[in-house]
Specification:
The protein is an all-alpha fold. The protein is 71% helix and 2% strand. It has 9 helices and 2 strands, in the order αααβααβαααα. The chain has a two-stranded antiparallel ribbon with strand order 1-2. This is EF-hand domain-containing protein D1.
Length: 193
């Protein structure tokens, strides 16, 4: 039994060394929940990041590759060189596949918010461009943004407020459904007489 434990430990240490040397890829966790892993962001922010990710994931494969990132940066008004794009991916590419997964994109925003990115890096530019811009959103967009920001800062728990809003929305939809059913029954009874 001791020999099998030694060989298992040896195999794990050997694999870890291969990962550190860059000759093997680390295994990714099967389940990724951005809401529990990145508690620094609100549910709304994560949903906005996911929407942006899906917008630029033109291959619909769950990754933003080099060309999709190039197009993304051009549309955001901050085109990057080929080398700059590769460096952007390399900064947050955890699985060394040369493309960005949704988790890696959120990691880029997290690093930008934590001040871990260089000011002139492409990822910092991406994070800044993804924030609200009054010139493109207009005053109404800025007003909504700042109202949401104040609400998030003033609430004890940002998730509680968002979950409450989602529950209120579901209740409103259920009420609407009940009213539609009642109106349908009334209309049905008028035709069946």
């Amino acid at each position: 039994m001791l020999a099998s434990a030694d060989s298992e430990l040896g195999a794990k240490l050997s694999r870890r060394q291969d990962i550190n040397d860059g000759t093997a890829r680390p295994r990714q966790a099967k389940v990724f929940n951005p809401y529990t892993e990145f508690k620094e962001f609100s549910r709304r922010q994560i949903k906005d990041m996911e929407q942006m990710f899906r917008l630029y994931d033109s291959g619909k494969d769950g990754y933003i590759d080099l060309m999709e990132l190039k197009l993304m940066m051009e549309k955001l008004g901050a085109p990057q060189t080929h080398l700059g794009l590769k460096n952007m991916i390399k900064e947050v590419d955890e699985d060394f596949d040369g493309k960005l997964s949704f988790r890696e994109e959120i990691t880029a925003y997290f690093k930008a918010a934590a001040g871990e990115l260089e000011e002139d890096s492409g990822l910092m530019t991406l994070a800044k461009l993804s924030e609200i811009d009054v010139s493109t959103e207009g005053v109404k967009g800025a007003k909504n943004f700042f109202e949401a920001k104040v609400q998030a800062l003033s609430s004890a728990s940002k998730f509680e407020a968002e979950i409450k809003a989602e529950q209120d929305e579901r209740k409103r939809e259920e009420e609407e459904k009940k009213h539609r059913r009642a109106a349908f029954r009334e209309l049905k009874s008028a035709f069946s007489q």
